[in-house]
Write a structure and sequence with these properties.
Length: 334
């Protein structure tokens, strides 16, 4: 009799459990339905369910650690041909300029000198592109090869590749640049003749050997003319090598303007190292520590006969004046 009286109670408990399970099933189905985006299906659309199943499988199979924003940036990064080139000049400050520009988040610069357009042209653009750093959409890719400026075949080759590319030239007093160039040469081959003997074809007559590489590079007007045969002056920006040392933030500001970038690199990024005689970075790319250029930068120059220096200044004067007119800038070299 007791068992009979308890039967209605057991039945009620069973019904309550069934109702609870049914309700829970409806809630789960509704949530799944919402996740699959089927709340307002178009009539006759039979592909939606299959598309949503595919999307669901991709979501479920994706690693938990993947960050959506970072993966999107990674997917959009690619190796592209440069938008800008630092084409010269050797011993003018090109390495310093490149290192300074790498502070800018919208610049991706190749550290090595690829020499595509002067030495390795036969390797092709595929090889060239493979050397470039990956860049996001909107970032500027650039490289530097100072020998480009003085190589006769280079302007035409670059123009064939890109007519709109922006060109940057760092120039420096050609006499000081020549002595710096010679200083680098003797650091590698100390047994070469003196600067004074190499600078003249005939010392007694004072005939300058303008084909000697350290002096030939300083004939800026001659080299610039080849570039102006292919590119308008508006596509070429001249960096004042001396001011890059005395006022790096000012020169970098003008370069950023030329590249149509926001002026992010300012004087807060630099400090002057009195020992080296060069500005250094307070925080270079990828580091939280101050950084100066390597030991090869800021070498002590050998003493050159003052009469030779004066002869070179007289030799370069008409070339410099012509270069000022062509570039539209007065660099005020002595």
């Amino acid at each position: 009799m007791a068992a009979f009286n308890n039967a209605p109670l057991d039945l009620r408990r069973l019904l309550q459990r069934l109702v609870t399970m049914f309700s829970f099933s409806i809630i789960c189905a509704s949530i799944l339905y919402l996740l699959l985006g089927r709340c307002e299906p178009d009539a006759g659309d039979s592909s939606g369910w299959n598309n949503n199943k595919t999307a669901l499988r991709e979501i479920l199979s994706a690693p938990d650690s993947v960050d959506a924003n970072s993966s999107e940036k990674e997917w959009s990064a690619s190796r592209r041909l440069p938008h800008a080139l630092i084409i010269g000049v050797k011993k003018g400050g090109t390495r310093a300029l490149l290192e300074f520009l790498r502070l800018h988040p919208d610049i991706r610069a190749l550290g090595a000198e690829p020499h595509l357009f002067d030495r390795h042209y036969a390797r092709g653009l595929g090889w060239y592109r493979s050397m470039m750093p990956k860049a996001l959409t909107g970032q500027i890719v650039m490289e530097k090869t100072p020998r480009y400026f003085v190589s006769p075949e280079t302007p035409g080759r670059i123009h064939t590749t890109s007519r709109d590319i922006k060109l940057i030239v760092v120039v420096r007093d050609p006499v000081t640049r020549a002595v710096s160039d010679y200083t680098q040469i003797i650091s590698k081959t100390p047994d070469i003749p003196s600067f004074e003997s190499l600078a003249f074809r005939n010392r007694s007559t004072g005939q300058i050997d303008s084909l000697w590489s350290p002096l030939y590079i300083g004939l800026y007007a001659r080299h610039l003319q080849r570039w102006l045969d292919y590119f308008p002056l508006a596509q070429i920006h001249f960096v004042h090598g001396e001011r890059l040392i005395s006022d790096p933030a000012g020169e970098l500001g003008r370069v950023q303007d030329f590249l149509s970038l926001q002026r992010i690199i300012t004087d807060k990024h630099f400090y002057f190292n009195k020992t080296k005689g060069f500005p250094c970075l307070k925080k270079p790319e990828g580091s939280s520590r101050p950084h100066c250029l390597g030991k090869t930068k800021g070498r002590t120059h050998p003493r050159i006969d003052p009469e030779v220096i004066q002869s070179l200044r007289e030799f370069y004067q008409p070339h410099n004046l012509k270069f000022y007119r062509m570039a539209g800038m007065d660099f005020r070299w002595q």
